Each structure stands twice: as C-alpha cells, then as structure tokens.
Amino acid sequence: MVHFQPFFMVINFFSGMVYCRKNSERLSASGRIIINDSNGTDPYGLFLLNIAFEEMGKAIFCYFIHKGWVEFNFVKSIFTKHEHKIFILDEIIKSFSLENGVLFLGGKKMGEKTLDEFKKNYPSETKAFREDTMNYLYVKPDGDNWHVPAQSIKDLKEREEKITQRISEIHAVLEVILLNSDKSTLNNFKIVSSKKGVVSVQFDVI
Fold first, then answer.
1. Do the beta carbons of residue 122 and residue 88 sit within 8 Å?
2. What is d(CA 14, CA 17) in angstroms, rounded to the nearest whole number?
3. pLDDT band at 7 (very low <50, low <70, confident <90, very high)
C-alpha cells in the first residue's frame, strides 16, 4: 500500500520494512565482528546489536502501515523515539490478533491506543534497554569512580547471547506475520527456542 505524505511525497512502507530489516542484519553482523575482534571494543558491538533490535521494531511498524492496519501519523514516532520500538515484540507475543484484515493490539483495534500508552506497560524494560544501550558507548561518572564501557561491563557474553536471542525472535515473528497476513485469523504467538538456540514461533491461524 502506498501512502501519501505532506508536500505530496509518496513513500512505500513495504520498502521501508525491507530496508529496516536489511539494516538490522547489517548492524548485527557489524556488532558480531566487533565483539569477536580482539582489538574491538566489545560494548560497542553490543550497542550495534541493541540498535539492530530496534530496527526490527521499526520494520514491523512499517509493515503494519503498508497493510493499512494503522496510519503513518499514528506511529511516526518510531522514527524519533527509541522506546516505541523496544516493546513491540513483547506486545505482539502478548496480544497480537489479526481478524479479517483488522489488527488488534493490547485488546484494542490498532490506532485506538497510543504508543505512549503501550510504553507505560513496559516502564522497566524500556528504561533498562535504553540505559544499557547508552552505557555501551559512553564514559561517565559512576559514584566515586568512572563508568568505562570496555572495563565496567563484565557479563559481555551473557548480554550478547540475550540480545542475539531477542533479535532472532523478532525476525521470526515478522516472518510469520509476512507469511500469514492474508489469513482470516492470526493470533496466539508463542516463542519456542531449542537448546541449541534455534528460534521458532508457534501461532494459531485460520
């Protein structure tokens, strides 16, 4: 679906979804290269992985706009506010329901509940995610000492595994939506991960 923007600009949000998805893949690849390079600054690689996750949130919203499930003006803050991209995976797992071409999220038709209202359901998650993202980059005072990303963050491997898992989950969820968006009913998402870290998505579809 093509959308008309102010000043008669025409933009295709399916293309936006594709670009965001590809950018997420490239950010993830760059992050892993930095983490695996003995001369790299590992927390900076984690920063790129966090941004890769946010880009996938943006990709999902772009597809929602493309399908006509929500208007651009309602979700345009995804291009300016980090927090509005962080919660979307959890909310899809919790409440996504597509019924005869109408998307419901949070128990309401998409567009009836603002992104700020959704964000209020995830205050600690969005706050922690953004704080981590910034802590991966910047030196700053920390009590009587200094927070130095390359020295202060000790659990790098665990953090890498966690965000890599989340990126895999959000990619898998988008793929399910892409393949089933023309179905009468799509809901009840559930993430399943194998012991080897392979992600799959269970869902109901009619």
1. no
2. 5
3. very low
Q: Given CA atoms 149, 151, 152, 155 in this order, what sign does their dihedral have? A: positive
Q: Rounded distance, CA 200 to CA 181, Å? A: 18
Q: What is the pLDDT of residues 107-161, one digit of tens each?
A: 999 999 999 999 999 999 999 999 999 999 999 999 999 999 988 888 988 999 9
Q: What are residue 70's phi and psi, to 5 degrees?
A: -155, 150
Query: The pTM is what?
Result: 0.91
Tokens of 82: 């980090």
Half-sphere exposure of 112 (CA within 13 A, CB side): 9
Domain segments of the chain: what residues? 2-205
Provide the b/e sequence for 174-187 (b: ≥16 CB within 10 Å).
bebbeeebeeeebe
DSSP state of 138: -
